[in-house]
Amino acid sequence: MTEARASSYPSNSQVTIVRILWMMITAILALMILFPLLWMVSIAFKTPAESFSANLIPEHPTFDNFKYVLTGVPFLRYMANSFFVSASVTVIALFFHTMAGYALARLRFPGREVIFLAIFSTFLVSLPVIIVPLFVIVRAMGMLNTYAGLIVPAIFNAFGIFLLRQYYLSLPREIEEAAIVDGAGYWRIYWSIILPLSRPIMAALAILFFLANWNAFLWPLTVASKADLWVVQVGIANFKSQYSASWNYMMAASTIVAIPTLVLFIIFQRQIMDSLKTSGLK
Amino acid sequence: MRRHQNKPDQSQPIRPKGLSAKHREWVAGYLFVLPDAIGLLIFLGLPMALSLVLAVFEVNGFGGYRFVGFANFLRMGKDPLFWQAARVTALYAVLLVPLLYVCGLGLALLVQKTNRFNAVMRAMFFAPHMVSLVVVAVVWQFMVVDKIGVINKLTPLLGISGVSFLGDPQFALVTVVFVSLWFLMGFYMLIFLGGLQDIPKEYYEAAKIDGATAYHCFWHITLPLLKPTSFFVLMVSMVAAVAGAQAFDIIYVMTKGGPANSTSVLIVYIYQQAFSFGAFGYAAAMSSVLVVVLMLVTAIFFVMTKGGRFNYD
Question: For residue B172, which of A40, A152, A192, A205 sits 20 to 30 Å off, Cα-Cα?
């Protein structure tokens, strides 16, 4: 599919027209897909009277909706909760998963394959199917309405371990050999060789874990009923049931909740897309 | 990396602390895996097993448990709302999975070539996936709000007007499927892009020389060589449709299962039974059926992909 070969059959101008048409279709589709998000931001800046008019650019743009949402509702508190929970889960999960991934990929011990198989078998078990027994367990551990209840159960998932193991399998064997010859212990190897080598995949996973937890709704909804512990997703769902008719407030709140993730995405777009593209496929 | 020239014979293992090198490696391996293994056991394995245990109990309002044997499972058979939920779940999956496959692959083919324009387009296609499901549900609810949402201003172009997308049982499920599709297709586009990248370019070049059209290339090269990716996508999207948090979040926030239970998928029904009516045992019985189904799916998945390695052979 080199350019030279593609253009040697039909004439050059034909190819250009086809390409421009192709690009236009793509661009129109992209705008259609983005439209709901643009619409959300647009309504967030509109006055209540204007919310149902069909113009994308507000006629009388206003910050009042944002002001109301940020002062009338403890959204800053919800965001702080979300940030604390997401950051904690990310750091702890990365620490544990790199350890497990390293052992499962590089160390030989009896039962290794069985352990990996057991971990892999939970790969597709999603939260909604175990939410009832999980709730019972977490309640029995006295972690309802605590930060621990929000954080600890969210740490463990097969996805991160699986991805790290695949990554470590691809590292050349000689990497540790020299260290073993030097008499380094396994902890030394993990800490000063494996971890520094994992920086790229850890960065990608860190973003993924953070986003997943920032966006999580079902578990925080279930485990924390105290308003002090609400994360931003639970906050906005409750905001919705209170202000179901005030769409201008709703869209301002939605914009506030969506912006951190969208900004992260714009900054780390390539890492996020690359890490997802290869997830579980090789 | 430093290499020691005159180390003693390397086949001679180093033996500190009385343990042989082999056993030291064993111990290290177990210790490294331990934190995750314990966590997964408590917060994933135990719940999976416990759902089977809870299923044979009835839980009263004071949190007391009473053994009821298979009563909860018998109740499922007689509960019209359970069958309704099972039907809606099946319908949701049957509508969503093929749409996701086609749209995901379609978008991937559209932006397959690596250039700056396509990179921007990919990001735009993927952007919905970055927004939380609660926000997605709220925004779409606004887009289709009863007969006056912005979508209602566009539908007359298709000859439909005055539709209440979420208020009418006939349209509610389709609307929910559409929103799920909008949220998920960027993700599957990425998975397909990964798969497309792995197809050797030489195949297309050879086909071109033989005079194959783009249509032929797609059916005889792209699609067959995408088999591992297709398999992964169908499997994962099927599981996501039946038991994914995305289905729960969208439906719970947009419709709570209504109107007239037309969007009441199993996971939403289970949640309501447990956390609105306190019927933990009954909810666990329904969950355990889902767990068994998912375990079977995962087992098939594992065997067919030889441990998730997705080798071509």
Answer: A40
Rounded Cα–Cα distance for residues B68 and B91 (Å): 32
Residue B280 is nearest to which of A136, A218, A273, comparing CB atoms? Answer: A136
Instruction: Let me know if residue A55 belongs to a domain.
Output: no
Residues A169 and A241 in one domain: yes
- Predicted pLDDT at B1: 43
> Which of B48, B65, B117, B138 to mutate to probe the A interface, most A CBs <10 Å?
B138
Whether residues A38 and A89 fall in one domain: no
pLDDT band at B31 (very low <50, low <70, confident <90, very high): very high
Q: Do A264 and A171 share a structural domain?
A: yes
- pLDDT attached to residue B91: 95
- Report yes or no on A157 lying in a domain: yes
With contacts defined as CB-CB under 8 Å, which chain A residues touch B236?
A: 124
Say whether both A88 and A133 belong to one domain: yes
Residue-wise pLDDT tens digits, A179-188: 878 877 889 9
In a domain, A59, yes or no: no
Residue type, B237: S
Across the interface, of B10, B274, B301, the residue whose CB is closest to A124 is B301
What average pLDDT does the segment A5-14 reach? 62
Whole-prediction pTM: 0.87
User: What pLDDT sits at residue A146?
Assistant: 96
Same domain, A145 and A19: no
> What's the full length of chain B, in residues?
313
Q: Closest-CA residue in chain B for A44?
A: B139
Residue A226 falls inside a structural domain? yes
A22-61: pLDDT as tens digits: 899 999 999 999 999 999 999 999 988 777 777 788 888 8
Domain extent for A10:
2-44
Q: Which of B42, B44, B65, B256 to mutate to test the interface with A (most CBs of A within 10 A)?
A: B44
CA distance B257 to B255: 5
**Contact assignment for A135 to B274 by CB distance below 8 Å:** yes
CATH number at residue A182: 1.10.3720.10
Nearest to A156 among B43, B270, B295 (CB): B43
Minimum distance, in Å, between the CA of residue A151 and any CA atom of chain B: 12
B13: pLDDT strictly greater than 50: no
Alpha helices in B198-279 (DSSP H): 201-209, 214-217, 223-225, 227-243, 245-254, 266-275
Split into its structural domains, chain A has a count of 2
In terms of domains, do A260 and A124 share one?
A: yes
What is the full DSSP assignment across A70-117?
HHHS-HHHHHHHHHHHHHHHHHHHHHHHHHHHHHHHH---TTHHHHHH
**CA-based nearest distance B35→chain A, Å:** 6
Q: A109 vs B195: CB contact, 8 Å cut-off?
A: no
**Per-residue pLDDT, B305:** 65
Same domain, A83 and A38: no
How far is it, in rounded angstroms, from Cα B227 to Cα A126? 25
* ipTM for the assembly: 0.87
Average pLDDT over residues B3-20: 52
CB contact (8 A) between residue A125 and residue B46:
no
Please check whether residues A12 and A98 belong to one and the same domain: no
Nearest to B239 among A31, A103, A126 (CB): A126
pLDDT computed for residue A176 by the predictor = 80
